[in-house]
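RECORD TYPE: inverse folding
INPUT: structure tokens
STRUCTURE:
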């Protein structure tokens, strides 16, 4: 792939890395002579037509964003089955790498970077664009310390697909908002929540929720409060901890409404960290959202020396527990099975668990429409009412099964259709007709998608078929009175076809054209069939014409020729040598109308029409 040039201008120079959805290269824009970043979609997404359509539309929308804290998108395109995104090249590291190398950041630096992230999100939200996948991996830190948010286009197109790859969760689940984890629509507040997680990680060096499985982490986003950052790092200012707390509130009505609101509170903290005093009232909106651990010490009650009372209570509690245990065998709550088809596995598990149901993964199989890692089917139909605690089996998609498109170039349409259908593709019933100077009409020129590319089994292939050379407009010649043999050559040379009918004609001889359609000098498109009426015989009778020729009296010999052109033919009726001073008189025959020409030594000296 290195050295390849896309769209005649973007040269791939160096592989920078890759994620679940794209491979990233450093490139050079040869037209503008500047470094660029080129992201190539991976095959399983490049062959998903709906994903590609959404990816291109959203990338073009994001390209309209212009902000110093957003990585600019320069171009989006396709070359063959390769879909690519051309972006601003940023010299620096991802925030993820910075945290891995340096650990927790100083509060002042974390505040500064978080403000820049908020500025980028505020600008995008003003243009009705939600990122949906804010995480340190998607934030680049330039060499001069500026934060630049990237991957808007891919995150938008992927939606929930950004958190699954080959059936496994990737880093996004640590930063996903509660509403995203539940599969609900995302809003700008979802980005604010993720930005709060990023700020938490910058301050502490760790994410607030960890677990053994993605579903476990997602459940914590929905149900649990994070450990207060000051428990991990006491030097974090309390006011800054309250900003993190408000960004991570699960109740949308209490969370920051906009990234700009979060930026404003961070600005107050930035001023304090710079040594400027701020009134305590300036943080009144944040102070009520402290992260609390409600597991503090309890007051001990005085023990009472009533052992028999305690014994009696223990007996009652045991009987009650036994009763409840037996009751559970007979009285189990019911629940309605949610519809989880086409959801990522972790979202499906979360919805079913919230409904009081267990899950297990069933078989994995290919599916033309449902992306890899999403649920194809569930063992209980949606809206079915069943007992809580039941296990629902979830079958997962492996994505579309890819097949190589056979090369049917040069074959007939019928043969091409058979080969493509045998390869388990659907053939578009409407071929695309294209003029071609060399390939005969009815033969396949190409396919869309192109031959030998790998496409989902069952996807539609369109045949591009030759219509032959592009037809030109020619002028219809005058064929009346000409013989069929010579007419046939002219018609073929013009790219026309003939339809012949025969008739008796008193005016034309056998084999001559008696009538034609279109008329002489009419414009005709190549490939048109012209109608010719051919005489079967008869013709006009012979007529006499007397021709006299005085030969110059110069003492020399001269060649005298008489040529007649009429309905029958053009022919030489007389040709003799004569002495100077001779007087030649000849009777010639003509048929119908004609022209008599006299030649002396091959030079025409006389012409007249007859009769």
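DESIGNED SEQUENCE:
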């Amino acid at each position: 792939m290195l050295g390849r040039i896309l769209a005649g201008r973007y040269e791939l120079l160096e592989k920078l890395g890759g994620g679940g959805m794209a491979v990233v290269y450093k490139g050079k824009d040869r037209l503008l002579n500047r470094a660029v970043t080129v992201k190539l979609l991976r095959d399983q997404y490049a062959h998903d037509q709906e994903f590609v359509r959404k990816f291109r539309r959203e990338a073009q929308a994001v390209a309209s964003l212009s902000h110093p804290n957003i990585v600019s998108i320069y171009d989006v395109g396709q070359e063959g089955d390769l879909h690519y995104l051309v972006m601003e090249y940023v010299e620096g590291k991802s925030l993820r790498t910075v945290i891995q190398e340096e650990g927790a950041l100083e509060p002042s630096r974390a505040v500064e970077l978080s403000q820049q992230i908020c500025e980028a999100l505020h600008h995008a939200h003003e243009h009705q664009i939600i990122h949906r996948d804010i995480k340190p991996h998607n934030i680049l830190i330039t060499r001069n310390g500026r934060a630049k948010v990237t991957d808007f286009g891919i995150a938008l197109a992927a939606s929930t697909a950004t958190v699954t790859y080959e059936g496994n969760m990737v880093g996004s689940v640590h930063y996903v908002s509660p509403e995203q984890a539940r599969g609900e629509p995302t809003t700008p507040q979802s980005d604010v929540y993720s930005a709060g997680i990023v700020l938490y990680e910058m301050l502490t060096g760790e994410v607030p929720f960890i677990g053994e499985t993605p579903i476990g982490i997602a459940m914590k986003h929905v149900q649990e409060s994070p450990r207060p950052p000051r428990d991990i790092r006491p030097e974090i200012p309390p006011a800054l901890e309250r900003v993190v707390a408000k960004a991570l509130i699960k109740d949308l009505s209490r969370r920051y409404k906009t990234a700009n609101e979060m930026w404003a509170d961070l600005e107050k903290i930035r001023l304090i960290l710079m040594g400027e005093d701020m009134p305590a009232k300036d943080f009144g909106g944040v102070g009520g959202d402290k992260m609390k651990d409600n597991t503090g010490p309890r007051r001990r009650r005085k023990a009472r020396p009533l052992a028999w009372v305690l014994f009696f209570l223990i007996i009652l509690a045991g009987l009650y527990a036994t009763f409840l245990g037996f009751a559970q065998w007979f009285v189990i709550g019911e629940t309605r099975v949610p519809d989880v088809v086409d959801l990522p596995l972790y979202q499906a598990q979360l919805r079913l668990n919230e409904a009081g149901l267990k899950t297990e993964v069933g078989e994995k199989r290919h599916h033309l429409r449902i992306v890899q890692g999403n649920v194809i089917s569930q063992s209980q139909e949606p809206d079915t009412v069943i007992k809580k605690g039941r296990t629902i089996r979830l079958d997962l998609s492996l994505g579309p099964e890819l097949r190589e498109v056979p090369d049917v170039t040069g074959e007939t349409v019928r043969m091409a259709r058979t080969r493509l259908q045998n390869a388990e593709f659907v053939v578009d019933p409407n071929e695309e007709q294209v003029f071609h100077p060399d390939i005969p009409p009815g033969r396949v020129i190409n396919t869309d998608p192109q031959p030998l590319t790998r496409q989902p089994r069952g996807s539609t292939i369109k045949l591009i078929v030759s219509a032959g050379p592009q037809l030109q407009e020619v002028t219809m010649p005058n064929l009346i009175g000409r013989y069929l043999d010579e007419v046939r050559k002219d018609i073929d040379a013009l790219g026309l076809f003939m339809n012949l009918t025969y008739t008796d004609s008193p005016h034309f001889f056998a084999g001559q054209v008696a009538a034609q359609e279109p008329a002489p000098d009419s414009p005709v498109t190549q490939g048109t069939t012209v109608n010719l009426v051919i005489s079967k015989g008869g013709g006009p009778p012979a007529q006499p014409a007397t021709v006299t020729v005085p030969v110059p009296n110069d003492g020399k010999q001269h060649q005298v020729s008489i040529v007649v052109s009429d309905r029958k033919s053009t022919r030489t009726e007389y040709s003799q040598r004569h002495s100077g001073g001779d007087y030649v008189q000849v009777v010639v025959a003509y048929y119908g109308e004609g022209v008599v020409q006299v030649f002396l030594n091959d030079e025409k000296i006389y012409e007249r029409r007859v009769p």
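NOTES: The chain has six domains: 5-88, 94-287, 334-397, 402-466, 473-538, 542-610.
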